[in-house]
């Protein structure tokens, strides 16, 4: 039995998120089906995080155990061949110790959210960004974002379906970077609550539009009440960028 | 009668290029249908350049004449509303003099070609870039590109279907810029022959792979023979970026 760590990229549009769903395709199912076709084994794939319908990944980490002897490079190539035409690709594959766990060993998760500020509908970026008509003030958004960094009770920014035991999370980074009419929001934490990034970005958009002040973000956080949420951003603009592990530093 | 200049963006994947085709959808048809629905007139839309199946545009310029009195902003909004769900958007619309012609008044055309250097299949960028497995040497590609800049007979880099009177063209710019595993090729000229950019990029890819030397590019050009072409790049990575007009400087 060998444990493999995978780095995975996908276009979230055709999937009902990462996790198995009864009523539609999931990224997990696509990868497990491909692994089964290669090995004949019932392979379970565990990811660093579960993403929602329509959410993309640039570098999700996952692991699986395989009995059949196979080199990591060969496994990656075979998975990519079998994953076609699904828009899912394995970018890296390595052997890891049997106690390495994509979810439980993960010490930091990094997301990016992309807002395209313009009036016209999106074409090339349709499904890949949240379009908001200008004006949008990125400096006000950054001031609002600063209210959320640190250790807080994020109940306001948590989906009713969130299964986490505690609403306490430490948000290490929430940066707003404007590049022309693209506004990128970078969020980093050890872990996030369900819908937390989209909920935070939704409120930052209200701040950018001048409908909320940065202080309103602080008040929404302090309310610890989902009813205080201003707006939940759509999944289109959300990307799972990277997961960090203590072992990464040594192997890089 | 008012002449309107349009700036248009589209995702080329579902279209058989810009121009009307009997056997499939075209961008021109989509815009003309939208204009007809708004005005009741048979509107002809002329573009700065004709693009092939699968080629994208970030800022194509076009013009059309409309009898019905309508403000440019209203026309743009109505076109965008009617164009849905086609991945075509009008980014700008202005009134221009009756002798302004999107094709004949155009003094420079700018294209970008995107190559993604990696082994794994593309997911988020599928249809939006040409994937080539590494290694690819962008410095060698730049040296090959330098062979093509200037005024030359580009017969080697011209499709058999090209309708231009002359194979002589002046290539003002052919720059190769590497950004991580993305290689961007920027091409500028007053006008291009049919398939010229894709044909040039195809040969530069051979140089990047070490299968051609930069000198081979010069030899292919000197051959003035389509048979000397090494490779035609796929449409996926090609973007019409911008068209320039003498009037732009005054209005900007």
From TrEMBL, chains A, B:
Keywords: Isomerase, tRNA processing. GO terms for biological process: tRNA pseudouridine synthesis. Residues 10-104, 145-246 form the Pseudouridine synthase I TruA alpha/beta domain. Substrate binds at residue 111. One of its GO terms (molecular function) is RNA binding. Formation of pseudouridine at positions 38, 39 and 40 in the anticodon stem and loop of transfer RNAs. Homodimer. NCBIfam families: hisT_truA (TIGR00071). This is tRNA pseudouridine synthase A.
